[in-house]
Amino acid sequence: MKPFLSYRYLRFPVATVLIFAVVTKAWQTATEPADGMPWLAMGHVLFESGLALLLLSGVWPRLVKWVTIVAFAVFCSVAVHLALKSAASCGCFGNVQVDPKITAAMDALIVLLLMLSTAGNQWKRPSRKQVTFVAAGIFFTLLLFIPMSLHPPLQRFDHGTVVTKTVQDDSDREVKPPWSSYMPSDFQIGYVEPKSVHRFTLEIANPTDRTLPLDSVETECECLVVMEKPEHLAPGKSPLTLEFTTPDIVGAYSKTITVVSGNQQWTTRFHARIDTPLSAEPETLVFTSGETEQLFTIKNDGQVPIRLLYATSPANACVVRIGPEPIVGGGSLELTALWNGTEPDGEQVITIHTNFSKQKTLRVPFQVRQ
Question: Which class would CATH give 155-274?
Answer without folding.
Answer: mainly beta
